[in-house]
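[Q] Does anyone have a clean structure-token version of this?
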Amino acid sequence: MNYPRAFLFLSMLLSCVFAAPIPDCAVLDLEGAGVDSTTTMVLSDKLRSEVFRTGAVRLVERSRMEIILQEQGFQQTGCTSSECHVQTGRLLGVSQLLAGTVSKLGASNTWHLALTLIDVETGAVLRMADWTHAGNAEDVMSDGIAEAYRNYLGSHPR
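[A] Here you go.
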């Protein structure tokens, strides 16, 4: 483990936690491009685990999100615009929404993750981060999600 990096990550996290009240956040399923739906779902669940593990936000559980959106008759599939994300966040009653994409570029096995945090009230993009790696899906699972989320945490102070 790289201790200076871990210390930096921990200090950034603590400064975020003590700087403001903990916001309510929903993590949408990642949109996939060139990635099968099972892999996309597994990576989405890994992202939720990373978000929850930090304690930086109060996370709305995925099953609860699905129930609320079904009750409202809202289809999340294909929801990629900022306006759609804001509408989703409002239906879920959260102040922040984390959305993202995972893509695999052709036969090169190059993966790209992109995360965007949106303020539901204003529609403003609060943070963005990405991660690119040549490797396999297991690398994305073991390293990519955590690295992209660490980049997201460090991209802007809360």
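[Q] Thanks! Anything notable?
[A] The chain has one domain: 3-155.
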